[in-house]
């Protein structure tokens, strides 16, 4: 029966090495004594074959049952046989008994060495005692016993040393496994914590605490971490174009208020390249050198929190130990950083959903207000005017029938115009043609109604392939953007022609343009009104908010007396959206 072990037995390798050494010595002794014949060397051949098999087993970390006893028995029998055939005590290798004594000392300490020495001494006395050899046999016997005692003692010391080493390495291995388990548990808890919250604050705090715990798993208690571990860390997020501290470890109150531009030093390198950066000499960094908590640190590590073209911020750690951020700790921080990016993305998406919900509510509210204004300024006024004219015409009938007839003709024209305005309003509220025939037909129908109702010429040029790439929901949003921009131009630009164009700008990106050659306006002044949500810029509010519904980018180019060009870039894929918004941030 064989048993396999995870680690090799050092004692086996000691015995194997000594056996090879002894074999070489025995062969050399025979060679010097001119006795290298098979009749003498066959025990050595068997011993060499046995040692080869033991070497193979040791290499495979495999041991036969009772291996120690077998090794000692084989060494004792073959060494005894060799002692006999090579000439007994008068032979060139009379010292062959040293081999089993050494084997017994290594495997069984002084007991094995002593017993083996006694057994081999008995063999020497039995086969080698004659009148002439009596004193020599006694000398060899005494020497073997003394040799056995000495090497028994050394074997005991060797065994104790090996046991201590094995215990030490076993303890070190156990501690290593405990540290690894603690780190894995910290990463698991971090992942669970990050995936269970949509709060930015909790995401940042959890990432910071779990990172410190994963880097120093031996410091488990929170108060011990705070007092003993000099690790400094911070989670920084972009806000208004500046990196602000969202969560930190060992930062002072003044440090928490510092803002970073990310345009110099280590932060710039990490954010631009998108890869983690390990660095030294923090005090010389143009941005991080301002942080008081980092002045005692000699090494640092920055992980950029980014996904594709979206850059959320950076994760910073620093330590007084110059070699603290080794490969293992860097890998841990990379894992934690990637998990943090996912959690930040989830929190950002949730925040965007909340803001979009609020924005859509505002859009619907603005739509209701716009409808109320349009009804008040258009059909309501017209109907009030019709009521007054009906009263005037009724009075005229008694005095001047001809004038009453003329008044009724004007009244009829007003009624037709009011009907057209109401139908146009109903069309813009729910253009059924959009659902049945698509964006191109809906915009052209709107242009016809603009011409019919307000005598406003609208030129439409929509690429059919571009429109087909838009899903129905996005087509609806684009229709309302076009309607809003055309109405703004009709009311304020006084342009003879308004041009509407939709085309493919590049792969995955469409461009919608509403252009007029009217009076134009000051875009910067209007943008300030937009920020204040002033009534004079409600048209721009609607355009921006509806553009955001399709994840697009709005660009308005206008100047007094030079007309207006409204451009809406619409991404069709996530990659195009990342590219579009990245280019906008860096423009």
Defining key terms:
587 residues; alpha+beta; Beta-Lactamase; Heat Shock Protein 90; five-stranded mixed sheet; 18 helices; rod-shaped
Whole-Å distance between the termini? 76 Å
- Structural class, from helix and strand content? alpha+beta
Strand order of the largest sheet: 5-4-3-8-7-6
Overall 3D shape: rod-shaped
Strand content: 5-15%
- Number of distinct beta strands: 13
Helix content: 55-70%
* Whole-number count of domains: 3
Largest beta sheet, briefly? 6 strands, antiparallel
Mean pLDDT: 76
The Rg value, from CA coordinates, equals 47 Å
Number of helices: 18
Low-confidence stretches: 219-227
State the gist of this model.
The protein has 587 residues and is of the alpha+beta class. Helices cover 64% and strands 14% of the residues.
Can you describe this structure?
This protein is an alpha+beta fold and 587 residues long. It contains 18 helices and 13 strands. The protein folds into three domains: 169 residues, no CATH class; 124 residues, GAF domain (Beta-Lactamase, 2-Layer Sandwich), CATH 3.30.450; 151 residues, 2-Layer Sandwich (Heat Shock Protein 90), CATH 3.30.565.10.
Question: What layout of secondary structure does this protein have?
Answer:
Blueprint: E1 2-4, H1 10-32, H2 38-59, E2 62-64, H3 67-85, H4 98-128, H5 134-195, H6 200-215, H7 222-228, E3 232-239, E4 242-249, H8 253-256, E5 259-260, H9 265-273, E6 277-280, E7 299-307, E8 310-319, H10 327-399, H11 401-429, H12 432-437, H13 439-454, E9 457-462, H14 464-468, H15 472-493, E10 497-506, E11 509-516, H16 523-531, H17 538-549, E12 553-558, E13 564-571, H18 574-585
Parallel strand pairs: 9-10
Antiparallel strand pairs: 1-2, 3-4, 3-8, 4-5, 6-7, 7-8, 10-11, 11-13, 12-13
Helix pairs in contact: 1-2, 1-4, 2-3, 3-4, 4-5, 5-6, 5-10, 6-10, 10-11, 10-17, 11-13, 13-15, 15-17
């Amino acid at each position: 029966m064989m048993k396999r072990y995870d680690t090799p037995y050092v004692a086996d390798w000691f015995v194997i090495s000594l056996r090879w050494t002894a074999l070489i010595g025995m062969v050399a002794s025979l060679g010097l004594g001119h006795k290298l014949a098979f009749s003498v060397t066959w025990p050595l051949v068997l011993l060499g074959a046995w040692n080869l098999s033991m070497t193979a087993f040791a290499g495979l970390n495999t041991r036969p049952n009772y291996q120690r006893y077998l090794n000692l028995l084989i060494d004792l029998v073959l060494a005894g046989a060799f002692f006999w055939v090579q000439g007994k005590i008068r032979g060139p290798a009379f010292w062959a008994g040293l081999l089993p004594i050494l084997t017994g000392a290594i495997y069984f300490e002084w007991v094995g060495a002593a017993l083996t020495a006694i057994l081999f001494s008995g063999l020497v006395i039995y086969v080698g005692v004659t009148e002439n050899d009596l004193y020599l046999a006694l000398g060899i016997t005494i020497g073997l016993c003394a040799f056995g005692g000495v090497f028994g003692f050394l074997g005991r010391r060797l065994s104790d040393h090996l046991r201590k080493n094995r215990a030490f390495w076993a303890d070190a291995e156990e501690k290593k496994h405990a540290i690894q388990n603690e780190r894995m548990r910290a990463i698991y808890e971090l992942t669970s914590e990050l995936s269970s919250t949509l709060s930015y604050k909790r995401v940042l705090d959890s990432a910071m605490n779990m990172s410190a715990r994963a880097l120093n798993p031996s410091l488990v208690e929170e108060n011990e971490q705070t007092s003993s571990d000099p690790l400094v860390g911070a989670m920084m997020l972009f806000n208004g174009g500046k990196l602000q501290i969202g969560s930190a470890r060992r930062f002072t109150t003044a440090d928490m208020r510092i803002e970073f531009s990310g345009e110099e030093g280590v932060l710039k390198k990490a954010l631009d390249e998108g890869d983690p950066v390990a660095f030294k000499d923090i005090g010389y960094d143009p941005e991080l050198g301002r942080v008081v908590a980092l002045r005692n640190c000699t090494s640092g590590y920055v992980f950029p929190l980014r996904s594709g073209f979206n850059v959320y911020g950076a994760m910073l750690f620093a330590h007084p130990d110059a070699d603290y951020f080794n490969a293992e700790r860097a890998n841990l921080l990379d894992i934690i950083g990637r998990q943090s990016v996912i959690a930040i993305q989830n929190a950002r998406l949730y925040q965007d959903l909340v803001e979009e919900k609020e924005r859509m509510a505002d859009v619907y509210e603005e739509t209701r207000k716009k409808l109320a204004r349009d009804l008040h300024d258009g059909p309501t006024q017209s109907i009030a005017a019709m009521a007054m004219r009906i009263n005037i015409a009724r009075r005229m009938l008694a005095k001047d029938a001809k004038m009453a007839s003329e008044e009724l003709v004007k009244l009829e024209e007003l009624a037709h115009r009011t009907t057209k305005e109401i139908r146009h309003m109903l069309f813009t509220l729910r253009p059924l043609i959009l659902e049945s025939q698509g964006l191109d037909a809906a915009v052209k129908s709107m242009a016809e109604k603009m011409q019919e109702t307000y005598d406003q010429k609208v030129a439409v040029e929509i690429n059919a392939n571009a429109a087909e790439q838009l899903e129905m929901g996005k087509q609806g949003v684009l229709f309302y953007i076009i309607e809003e921009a055309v109405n703004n131009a009709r009311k304020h630009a006084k342009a003879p022609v308004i041009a509407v164009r939709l085309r493919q700008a590049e792969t995955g990106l469409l461009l919608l343009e509403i252009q007029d050659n009217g009076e134009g306006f000051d875009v910067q002044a209007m943008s300030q009104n937009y920020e204040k949500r002033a009534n004079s810029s409600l048209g721009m509010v609607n355009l921006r908010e509806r553009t955001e519904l399709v994840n697009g980018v709005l660009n308005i180019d206008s100047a007094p007396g030079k007309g207006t060009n409204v451009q809406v870039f619409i991404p069709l894929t996530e990659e195009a959206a990342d590219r579009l918004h990245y280019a906008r941030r860096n423009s």
